[in-house]
Amino acid sequence: MLPEVIQGILLPFWGTLIGSACVLFIKKDLGSLKQIAVNAFAAGVMVAASVFSLLIPAIERSALEGSLISFASVHFGFIAGMGLLLLTDLLLARYGKDSQSGSM
Fold first, then answer.
1. How far is CA 64 from its chain centroid?
2. Separation between Cα atoms, residue 23 and residue 54, nearest integer Å
3. What is the spatial distance between Cα 84 and Cα 69, in angstroms, rounded to a whole number?
4. Quick one: which of 101, 103, 51, 59 has its CA closest to 81?
5. The predicted structure's pLDDT at residue 103
6. Predicted confidence pLDDT, tens digits, the chain (104 residues)
7. Which end of the chain has fewer surrounding CB within 10 Å, N or C?
8. Euclidean distance between the first and the last CA atom of the chain, given in angstroms as a whole number
């Protein structure tokens, strides 16, 4: 079982490392529109990962428990997370180095 665990950890690690290295090295060569497209793609991947790997299994598990509190806590956590991300984005746009919106 140990080799499968190591492979399961190293495969996403190398994928993330290679992907971030590509962005790091070609960041200056990309135009503004291409940077927006790459950021939008990355955001879409992260939303899909959070919904399909975290949110849907949590909703299914809360449905199995049958408790209204567990169901509500999943939804409250999702909405609170969205709110914190929006607040962070607004604060970065206001007080960060960039004055443009969508700094995250």
1. 26
2. 26
3. 22
4. 51
5. 56
6. 688 888 888 888 898 888 888 777 876 777 888 878 877 888 888 888 888 888 888 888 888 888 788 888 888 988 998 899 899 988 888 887 655 555 55
7. N
8. 39
CB atoms within 10 A of CB 25: 9
The greatest distance separating any two alpha carbons of the chain, rounded to the nearest whole angstrom, comes to: 53
Residue 95, pLDDT score = 82
Decide: 103 and 92 in contact? Cβ < 8 Å: yes
- Residue type present at position 68: L
Measured CA to CA, the distance from residue 77 to residue 59 in angstroms comes to 11
CA distance 78 to 31: 34
Residue 78 · residue 55 · CB < 8 Å: yes
The pair phi, psi for residue 35, each rounded to 5°, is -65, -40
